Amino acid sequence: MWSNVGILARVLSRGTAWHVPVVVLSRGWKRVPGARRLRVAPRTCVPCRASQSTAGHNSFSVRSHTCGELRSTHVGEVVTLCGWIQYQRHGMFIILRDFSGLIQVLIPEDESRAKLKEFCDVPVESVVKVMGKVRRRPAGQENMNMPTGEIEVCAETVEVLNVCQKLPFEIKDFVKKTESLRMQYRYLDLRSSQMQYNLRLRSRLVMKMRDYLCNKHGFVDVETPTLFKRTPGGAKEFLVPSRDPGRFYSLPQSPQQFKQLLMVAGIDRYFQIARCYRDESSKPDRQPEFTQVDIEMSFVDQAGIQALIEGLVQHMWPDEKGSVSTPFPSMTYEEAMRDFGVDKPDTRFGMKLVNVSEVFDSTDVPFLRDTFRQPGGCVQAICVVNGAKHLKSKDLESIKQVALVHFQQEVSVVVVKTDGTWKSPLGKMLPESVKQSVHQMTMAQPGDLLILAAGQQDVVRPLLGKLRLYCAELLEEKGVALRDPTAFHFLWVVDFPLFLPKKEEPGELESAHHPFTAPHPEDADRLFSEPHKVRSQHFDLVLNGCEIGGGSVRIHNASVQKFVLEKVLKEDSSLLSHLLEALASGAPPHGGIALGLDRLLSIIVGASSIRDVIAFPKSFRGHDLMSGAPSFVSKEELRPYHIDVKWPAAVEGTEQ
Amino acid sequence: MWSNVGILARVLSRGTAWHVPVVVLSRGWKRVPGARRLRVAPRTCVPCRASQSTAGHNSFSVRSHTCGELRSTHVGEVVTLCGWIQYQRHGMFIILRDFSGLIQVLIPEDESRAKLKEFCDVPVESVVKVMGKVRRRPAGQENMNMPTGEIEVCAETVEVLNVCQKLPFEIKDFVKKTESLRMQYRYLDLRSSQMQYNLRLRSRLVMKMRDYLCNKHGFVDVETPTLFKRTPGGAKEFLVPSRDPGRFYSLPQSPQQFKQLLMVAGIDRYFQIARCYRDESSKPDRQPEFTQVDIEMSFVDQAGIQALIEGLVQHMWPDEKGSVSTPFPSMTYEEAMRDFGVDKPDTRFGMKLVNVSEVFDSTDVPFLRDTFRQPGGCVQAICVVNGAKHLKSKDLESIKQVALVHFQQEVSVVVVKTDGTWKSPLGKMLPESVKQSVHQMTMAQPGDLLILAAGQQDVVRPLLGKLRLYCAELLEEKGVALRDPTAFHFLWVVDFPLFLPKKEEPGELESAHHPFTAPHPEDADRLFSEPHKVRSQHFDLVLNGCEIGGGSVRIHNASVQKFVLEKVLKEDSSLLSHLLEALASGAPPHGGIALGLDRLLSIIVGASSIRDVIAFPKSFRGHDLMSGAPSFVSKEELRPYHIDVKWPAAVEGTEQ
């Protein structure tokens, strides 16, 4: 077939007793005609179908085995394999690859070898089908680095199913490619063993999560719409023009409203592996679409949701990554900020923040003393163990730079010398007793580095929190084994504030998470008097210093929800009238959580970017480098949507 | 708690020996403070948590049982239930409902009854928590229509968790609601037992499909992007403006390109329960987003894909709907058009088309004779068994009307009278022998109805195909049991044409399905000489006359794909350059299928619309009646996307 497009088809056969190699150099797909034309009659078996097993990776396929599954137990079996030519050796071996691994195929050495020459010219990455017998490799030729290295397949027929015409890069794990090239030719990049592992693991873990939620705990998988109404303040929501002039759908950032409505609807336990959208052009490394494991339950409290998630993580956790013990440790938001300077602490290492204010109370260094005497003022320190030993003065300078650039703040970087004295301008200003107290409180030893910062607590904490992580990276660059790359530290952070002062207008409040979060029961009465002091029933799940999930108990009372929207947040509650009406129609107490699936997976596989666990990610700038999306469309195509492009030159001025 | 918003909280307790009813009329959610504040320590057990079982519907919940699971085996157990008040009886019973069913709760009759009066005033659909002991109902008071009807729960405490303030309609299965009201208050509509069943069945069946594909056959669940590049001719794709001026993403109609690229990437077996988008404003009853079960395999042929799907349907099929036998019957497109006048025949009944041209060859009725003597001309008939008996002359008239309105064609509707003569103007024109031949060929009997149409075959077939279905509906309206409502007739339709003449320009060809479909192997050579005669390797899965899936073997050869795009379809192949490059980079032979999940589910549950198997569907006009989407957005919100609305008055003329 395909003869009109100039296909080179050749059948070479020979007559030795034990095998008849047939090499078909064809780009067509060999199919036996008329295999399926009879009505009702049992399906005609297609002769080229090597396997009709009822399960496994080879069911319904023309192959009998995958390349990687063959072992010495298969010796003597006639197998049919399909795969890609990984490479050729000595003009007599081809290494065939499929997703499961590699296998060596021997093109038998005999008088027909000359005829096989053409076959050996078929480029790597071409697709072939091989039929032949599995045999043990001759003694001494085994390759113990290869799972199939004890055996090889002695080809009887080889058929080229598709010739690989060109490749922008080789499909070898050791070949380095720029990320933009990987993105442009994603279909080749995905052939790498790492990307195959990542995508297959993702599928496997998601399946185990579904099993846990659906089969074990009675959750209902409900699909919610992605063409929805713009939410108040939904600046990060993509818009989708409709054919009704001026009306737009919006791609929601999460199914938050729908999951709560499903609880009002009596679904009781909902989950969805939900596609979410966020237009964050300002942020680097953004993915405009991402996936979250979205969960909501009725008649549950915070502890119940946390226990559910601990069980979920334990159930889905891959064996090859060790085990996860539960319950996960928990700390309050206040403790996290106090000890780690961040609400998502990386607890794989210490280097905690220490409040050393008290020892400076009695000193004569005015800027220190005055600072911490102001309301909210403090002096805090972190001790970088062996920091003086590993870090060069260039590194110490960069630490100061980070503080200056990100926080416009100076820090003192103190080298604790072998004799216990301080190498720092501060050393001369402070009496020995103060330095000793600081050593005691921070447990600093000779050879360590002390970083001291003075100022308002809400600046000093995040500043030292950032420097703590920065120093960890510096030390690891020097080869210090600070964080175990095989360790997974889960942590709950609880008791977040319900509201935060607005950045632009600190006199006003905004939701720390979202306006549907319920107040902490201990603080419930304060909601009406001192809302800024109210803690919430929000909780975050943190893994190795990354927030991988956030959950909360929701407000289920319509009047409380209305109070929060109108009185605290000063928002137009009519935009959420459908939700308020739902809460007034018999809403059960409910709560839930959303886990960031991409982030979780990337940590599990140790990827540096979530792009490595997404099949077709967008680039750093939100572009699809393979197809060129987003792309220009014609004025004609915009007409049905009643929109027109305002080109930048025209944006601020007149219409074009 | 919530005391500031005026909550009526009351605790009534009394001191009898065997129970202490506590009625808490509170809209707040009772929670024990400080339940979770300790770090690392084992989670503090919340006293109100009735069950900490490790699996099932009540794990992690404050209830111990669901309402519907209680049976006489639970007698004597103290249980905690949460649910909605379905109704109250005699001021002493409440019927509590959750997703699992109903249970009767007895408010014990004793001296405190007066105090309970207030509780009895709580409106239906309020949410309550009841703790009490299961007991056998007094003899004679059992309700055998209720699965829990042998028992009742004798309340010890009752807590009102949320008061239902208002309801636009009652949550009773027998209450009829308009569909727009159901859509506006979808969260109430979903409380009905039918909608609960539909959504839960959907979740269950999807889970079984995943189990079959992922666990049994090695498929990999891969999420593909929904923000993609507009495909050539993608008039039905929604556009999503990006922040790059003039550039748009597009919401794809299916993951077709991605699934093929995944095969090139060596994923080997892909599936996804994929959200798809289609902007079909012109069509009624559209859903702008819908879900398909999307499958692609490498190294497979058409028979393999069909066998996979038969196994899938069998595996997921719900027990309560009988069994499905495989393989499914199969017929060619030509057979389907010939016998049923449609490419998705409803094979639950006969009434097949019969070509009666030959008997009119010798007649004197010129318009009949001349018609079928033209190329493609024919006279065809369907016989409506007992049609004359059941259908009135008004019905016969409506049959003619359908033909006129939809096909601008006249048909002869012939009543075969008890004496075998024809009641029809045609009866007088035709000799008896012709009528006898028609009777023989159509197997018409006295009391039947014959519908005859003459004309071009490609008009007559769909015309009679439509009238066949119309007559079936008419007969069923009269109470004739034509189609078994519990029967499920699966059917493969195969050997579709690869190309069809364009409607606007019949001299040009367009893809019958999509340009990636491979030609039928028997017709492969014709592709280059007579493409209009080429059959494809496309196949449809039909259930009860609805197309529920379409699959094909794809073109895996780059030059064939290029030929089809450029030479046959006259399209700009550069818009698909990424796909052509991929095919040239070692694409394996591959094929796949997509099943319409919404449609399949709606047929299984017997719903009249796919809206009944979607949690939050759009209305007939594509609107979300609950939230009001799509909605207006401000000029300010459009600014980041560099677009402007062209209001209709301005569309054709100048900018506004």
From TrEMBL, chains A, B:
Keywords: Aminoacyl-tRNA synthetase, ATP-binding, Ligase, Nucleotide-binding, Protein biosynthesis. Residues 199-630 form the Aminoacyl-transfer RNA synthetases class-II family profile domain. Coiled coil: none annotated. One of its GO terms (biological process) is aspartyl-tRNA aminoacylation. GO terms for cellular component: mitochondrion. Signal peptide: none annotated. GO terms for molecular function: aspartate-tRNA ligase activity; ATP binding; nucleic acid binding. Belongs to the class-II aminoacyl-tRNA synthetase family. Type 1 subfamily. This is Aspartyl-tRNA synthetase 2, mitochondrial. It comes from Scleropages formosus.
